[in-house]
Amino acid sequence: MADRGGTGSGGGGGQGALETAKKSRKPKYSRFSQQELPACKPILTPGWVITTFISIGVVFIPIGLASLFASQRVTEIVYQYDSDCIPPEFSDDSVEFIKSDKTNKTCTRTITVPKQMKSPIYVYYQLNNFYQNHRRYVKSRDDKQLWRKEDETSSQECKPEDFTANGQPIVPCGLIAWSLFNDTYKFRVNDKVLEVNKKNIAWSSDRDHKFGSDVYPKNFQSGTLIGGGKLNSSIPLNQQEDLIVWMRPAALPTFRKLYGKIETDLEANDKINIVIENNYNTYSFGGKKKLVLSTTSWMGGKNDFLGLAYLTVGGLCLFLAISFILVYVLKPRPLGDPSYLSWNRNAAGILN
Amino acid sequence: MTSGEPLLPFSDSQPPKRIRRIGSFDCLCLDNSLALSNFDESRINSGEINEDQVKEEEEDDLAPLEFAFPWKPLKKPYRSGVRRQSYSADLRYHQPFPLACPTQVQKKLVWGSMELASGKISHSVPLVQSGTPYMVHDQSVKSQRVWRKSMQLEDNLFNEVDSRLIYIDDPRRTNEKYEFTGNEICTSKYTILTFLPKNLFIQFHRVAYLYFLAIAALNQLPPLAVFGRTVSLFPLLLVLAVTAVKDGYEDWRRHRSDCKENNREALVLQDGAFQPKRWKDIEAGEVVKIFADDTVPCDMILLSTSDISGIAYIQTMNLDGESNLKTRYARQETINTEFEGFSVSGMIRCEQPNRNIYEFTANMEFNGHKFPLTQSNIVLRGCQLKNTEWFIGVVVYAGQETKAMLNSATSPAKRSKLESYMNRETFWLSVFLFVMCFVVALGMGLWLVRHKEQLDSLPYYRKRYFTMGKEDSKPYKYYGIPMETFFSFLSSIIVFQIMIPISLYITMELVRLGQSYFMIEDKHMYDSASDSQFQCRSLNINEDLGQIRYIFSDKTGTLTENKMEFRRASIFGKDYGDPEHMVNLFQETSATASRGESVCRRKWMPKPEINVDSKLMNLLQSGSNNEEKQTAHNFFLTLAACNTVIPILDNDMETINYQGESPDEQALVSAASTYGYILCERTSGHIVIDVHGEKLRLEVLGLHEFDSVCKRMSVVIKFPDSSVKVLVKGADSSMFSIITKDIESGDGFWHETQDHLIQYSLQGLRTLVIATRDLTAAELEEWQCKYEDASTSLTERVVKLRQTAALIESKLSLLGATAIEDKLQEGVPETIESLRQAGIKVWVLTGDKQETAISIGLSCKLLTTDMQRIVINGTSEAECRNLLADAKVKYGVNGRNGNLKSIIDAESNCSRLSCDISSCEKLHMDAFEKKVTSSLALVIDGTSLVYILEKDLAWELFDLATACRVVLCCRVAPLQKAGIVDLIKSRTDDMTLAIGDGANDVSMIQMADVGVGLCGQEGRQAVMASDFAMGQFRFLERLLLVHGHWNYQRIAYLVLYNFYRNAVFVLMLFWYILCTAFSTTSALTDWSSVLYSVIYTSVPTVIVGVYDKDLSHKTLLQYPKLYGVGHRHEAYNMRLFWITMVDTLWQSLVLFYVPLLTYREGTIDIWSLGSLWTIAVVVLVNMHLAMDIHCWAVITHAAIWGSIIIAYACMVIVDSIPILPNYWTIYHLAGSPEYWITILLIIVIGILPRLLFKVVHQLFWPSDIQIAREAEILKQPSYDQPTAK
Questions:
Q1: What does the alpha-carbon distance between residue B615 and residue B629 come to, in Å, rounded to a whole number?
Q2: Of the given ranges (A106-110, A124-128, B895-899, B1166-1170), which has the lowest mean pLDDT?
Q3: Do the beta carbons of residue B93 and residue B44 sit within 8 Å?
Q4: How many angstroms away from the CA of A276 is the closest CA of chain B?
Q5: Would you say residue A349 lies in a domain?
Q6: Hey, of A135, A176, A292, which one would you mutate to test binding to chain B, going by the most B CBs within 10 A of its CB?
Q7: Which of A14, A303, A341 sits opposite B1267 (nearest CB)?
Q8: Which portions of the chain have biased composition (kind: Gly residues) (chain A) (predicted)?
């Protein structure tokens, strides 16, 4: 029978093999090579199991209570105005109403503050069924153009809002900017104007490093189809905070975006007079528009989910801990008892 | 003698002839052209047929083993049209050599049948189909593949169609047509120019890479650009680059070693003088001079050596790993030639280059003489010259054509069973992938249809331009609903690509590499005796070691040490060597004194452990000259002369070292020298034996080397008094048939000898029968004539020599028998016991006699005396059938129904048996019965196997054998060993392991799922063919029970975890895509998606796969039954896969919905949510892994926590690049407590069900591993302390 041949690696070197053969090939002893590094070997002893569950419970229930409490303290006023702000004569043709230049889109409503709201009160607009996370949409922007004046030639990504008909670059380009939200809100309480502070509503990192201070809007919304708000071309992009907020696409099709902050407290039963400029077209795709006034807590906005989830999980774990204590008391299994080994247990079936 | 009936489809009257005819036909038809030139045409006539057939029948007895092979002579795979001659012509042509060459016939025929079975050969003969029932019936495709691989080795042996002509010292004429290669070797694969294309080409042979490439290519299409273009190429480029660098480095090293080799210098005859020349410039035909300790640069024929008799000693360590010296001879005709300054002319006709390093056939014309050249005249590249000042040789094969280079191929790749299961699950994953993509595409389609009217102006879709320019109203990136749907399908494939865990294949390779490192470095598997480390030659089947169900073990050299010691002798019917009479020569001072001088002159290396029988010693030294003394004298003369052992005088001339290829022979020669017959000198022409101080020079007229078919060797000796004797030694089965029973002449020690042989066998000793015969002048002449002819023939020399040997090896007179002990290796009984406890069946397949096999079986505790032995010794098909049926009825073995489904478990099988019995007998199953039925031992011999394996009896044997605890197969031929392995392998799903140390185990090793080679005394062929190689049989216990278990557990967990890790990520993306109007948006940044499986989560899997261990080696060895985990597929099965998938689904839902509910109606932007998800999934999968880790060492900690930290670090880095849209996200998030609380919630809710499941499972249904683990950790707190040595 012929020889099967040399090893894969030892192809050429006949000599090398001989040299290594001379010295002993005994493996050098080390804890690592013998797989004997000191190691911690956890096993699920009853003690460990019960401790784990109890500690999860003990940690989770306070967190749950705290966040639930925080969430409860948040006062939130949500007012859906998309259908309210359509005049009755246009109620069957809301798209026509919103597209028209001639209609009066101002809309005044009064809402009552249910509880006292401490400043700062955040003003959000909430859109629904608006897929800001659509792939075509998310990608339709040019970050270079937003930051550097020299890169104003918009990239391919911005299509179809990249150049005007005569080849001028659009700044800011892309669908996101093009569809800028442009409803406005004015508030009056007890006939006093409530100032809405629109400064610092965007991330400071965006203002400082993503939107250039020397980049000015150009040829924006100059096409035949107007997607949304217009920009004052004399204000640099880094001060167009509405745009900056809008340009961070929302993660989900129902989303809120910060409109501004009200820096005075509102008392319970205050009547807020809201003047809404209802400009933004969500009617064509059946999206809802809501105005949200909300205070915040350390946990953010009003959301009971985290608190409830934590309480549930914590409670469950405590329950499990108790059940395991009962099980270990009632039906203990001695750990490491060889009589539980399969070949000892059903000895009848084994014939060795 | 056995008859050939069962093998053949023909009528019973003729079979032997037919076989022979076909056999010889095969042997010779290889080489028509040469044969024609060598044989006397006149012989080819039809008249000789009858005569030869008669001869055949006479000689039936001489080749008993020819029938011991289950696969019968069929025919040779024809390679060229030239050989396709008509059947009758071939037949006639071959008549002069009716006794076919069994070795070659067997090999070739089997290969031939393989070829046929695989449908390659159209040139079919009716015999073929009926002759291969075994193959045709039930050979699985898979095993055929293995066969075919092992077969490739053999192919070259017979490729002798055109011989190669070498003109001595005339390289130009030799290589007229420039068809021979130079001596430059090139083991490197690449050059600088070809590196890139060739390396890429090789790398892309992997399906995984093609998948990567296809995905990356898809991503380049504009409508599909899901990821950034460079990002999507990153993983592929990374893997390619890493592999390329590794390959490049290896190749660079090969280049360097090639360069070193090529630039070495040797003395080559140039212009009448030996001048140094670089190796790479040496050409075939040149004459080269090599000095002691030099390495031979190419394959050379010896012309002359510094030794007058033309001997050169070489060490072939680099070639086959054997460290003993081998002798090579220069032919007498050439040794006196002067080379320097003279022109030499001669021609060598040799076979084409081939890989067989143990065979060489050529002849040479030199100064008008024509003589044969054999293996003993060639020195191969890589050998070293030892103990010889110099030799001169002519180059026949150079460079890549040398046998050493032709042999540097790797063994065939095997695939592990777990991997094939894994592929099944991968299929399921692709189904999931397809379903998900389909859902996305369908959703996209429906969404588009529903919003058809709005698409033009949807702020987030806008399919048209409204610019008043030339593009006005053109659709933008919109190809119609069907195409959009289709593109959406494709892009979801891109997004979900890692659902198919391609990276798993790469991870597994890395892990196996690490596992091999630990196996190699295990100090418990290092054999200090042979200084051999454990070797992993195959990197693909580590985990198979944890699931072995059957072990097929060779006996000699595997269970035993293969270090032979002469123990007993039967001479003239008397048994010597009884321990009572044994004396140690060197302790018995009186004995030494009495022999005085002779002891002082003793030159051989004393071996104190050989004791002598004083009775025998006295007999030998007695002055009497009776028949007994004569017999003893001839007996020891034969021991000393009839062998191929070379005595090597040590430098101090004080001692003699016996170097030989067979340890048996060395033992016999040493024994002879102990009794005063010292072999002092051996050349090709004569030997010198020191007989009690008297030098006896014997002329060797001819030597028939030991032949595994005839199982005997003989030497023809001419004594100084011109009498000629043939001395023969051989296996009893082959010897007794050619010994004359001289009962009438009085010396009837025939029976005594046979009795002694049986006794010896029972003691587990290896026996040989010694016989001799005086040759008459006429006989001598006839023999010499034939011998000359046979030994110079270029083709079929082996056959012809065998025929020649048959002339004189007959009518021998018996001298006696020897018994050699082959000691059991250390720890064999313990290992076998513990393997058996582990539920592994150990089968021993040996070439030894039944008695020897049984006694070895007893001594290694394989057999116990309370076992019921079933012995199958059939000599015909019917007999075998009856024996099998009887055994099955007697021991209540069920038919095939139970076994068809594959034997699930030995235990269950046995219990079923016992239940049957108890139900039949309506008795309580008492302990005794249980024991009887559970301990059946099957002993079967090779002859029966011929009938059984070939016919439909294989199933019967399978049923019976699997019901037995022990199976011993004796007298099996190498290919039968493979057949037996295949018997199990093709009928069950159980894993088989074959272990052996010799060339005869190669086929078995290659056939089995796992082949283990022992670096033993018999060379390294078994090692070369094996997947794992080690020094001692007892390491098998550790290899399987410890490393096998670990590897299996690790790889199994690794695979499941990888499935989970990728699926949970993909599912999370999938849920999100459902919230993005099916637009395949990924909230995660491109970099996170790509780095997830490459960096964030890959290191811990590798570390855990390499280093985690559930149980310490002590526990595993203490409870061998823990090995059953692998048998029961406990660590990896469909159920676990589905449980994992359900868990995956839960975790992905948690991952998706917890943040969704937390941030619903919130201000969160897509990148923040993506960032949250990235971190959550990375932490979650790492915590999941952490929960399953058994053994937390420093590196484990580093890997797990390090991965999480690295993931964070990468997020920070990526979020710090202002130009990316996700700039600053992580900083922003980290400041909000909501973020941290959400992540904590995800982790806890995600992991809770799994933890609960684990706790409950361990509480109520603890697994064996779990209990053993608890026992190990709780009861031995200091367990982990390394055993300091």
A1: 12
A2: B895-899
A3: yes
A4: 21
A5: no
A6: A135
A7: A341
A8: 1-16
Same domain flag for A183 and A111: yes
One-letter amino acid for residue B399 of the chain:
G
Q: Which two tokens stand for residue A141?
A: 């922007």
How does DSSP assign A108-158, residue by residue?
EEEEE--S-BPSPEEEEEEE-S--TT-HHHHT---HHHHH-GGG-SPPGGG
- Mean predicted lDDT score pLDDT of chain B: 76
Question: How distant, in Å, are the alpha carbons of B711, B799, B852, B1051, B1052 from that of B554?
Answer: 18, 28, 13, 30, 31
Total structural domains within chain A: 2
Q: Is B478 on the interface with A (CB under 8 A)?
A: no
Q: What is the 3-state secondary structure (H, E, C) of B200-265?
A: HHHHCCCHHHHHHHHHHHHHHCHHHCCCCHHHHHHHHHHHHHHHHHHHHHHHHHHHHHHHHHHCCE
SS3 B151: helix
A53 and A194 co-located in one domain: no
CA B631 to chain centre: 45
What 3-state class would DSSP assign to B13? coil
Same domain assignment for residues A52 and A131: no
Q: What pLDDT, in 10s, does the model give residues B170-227?
A: 888 887 777 777 888 777 778 888 888 888 887 777 777 788 788 888 888 877 777 7
CB contact under 8 Å between B357 and A135, yes or no, is no
For residue B1272, give Cα distances in angstroms to B236, B1116, B1122, B1280: 44, 10, 13, 9
Residue type, B855: S
Bind-site residues of B for Mg(2+): 554, 556, 997, 1001
- Confirm or reject contact between B1268 and chain A (CB < 8 A): yes
Considering the domain architecture, whether residues A64 and A119 belong to the same structural domain is answered as: no
B577: left (phi over 0), alpha (psi -120 to 50) or beta: left
Chain B residues lying within 8 Å of A31, measured CB to CB? 1282
Question: Residues of B forming the annotated binding site?
Answer: 554-556, 665, 706, 729, 766, 846-848, 971, 977, 997, 1000-1001
Q: What is the ipTM of this complex?
A: 0.92
Instruction: Say whether residue B1223 is in contact with chain A using an 8 A CB cutoff.
Output: yes
Does residue A108 sit in the same domain as residue A125? Answer: yes
Are B1161 and A320 in contact (CB < 8 Å)?
Answer: no
Is there a domain that residue A46 lies in?
Answer: yes
B554 catalytic? Reply is yes
Domain boundary among A295, A310, A345: A295
List, for residues B920-977, the tens digit of each pLDDT value.
333 333 333 444 445 788 888 888 888 888 767 888 888 888 888 889 998 887 778 8
pLDDT in tens, A256-292: 999 999 999 999 898 999 999 998 988 888 889 999 9
Does A250 sit within 8 Å of B1163, measured CB to CB? yes
Provide, for chain B, the percentages of residues in helix, strand and coil under a 3-state DSSP scheme, each rounded to the nearest 5: 50, 15, 30
Q: How many residues does chain B have?
A: 1285
Residues A112 and A241 in one domain: yes
Interface of A with B in 109-138 (CB under 8 A): 124, 126, 130-138
Please indicate, yes or no, if residue A165 is contained in any of the structural domains: yes
Determine the structural domain holding residue A315 and report its residue range. Answer: 42-74+301-332
CA distance from start to end of chain A: 41
Smallest CA-to-CA distance from B1220 within B1209, B1233, B1229, B1211 is with: B1211
Same domain, A120 and A241: yes
Asked whether residue A100 is assigned to any structural domain, the reply reads yes
Are residues A325 and A187 part of one domain? no
Q: In this complex, do B1025 and A63 lie within 8 Å of one another by their Cβ atoms? A: no
The DSSP bridge partners found for residue A290 are A80, A126
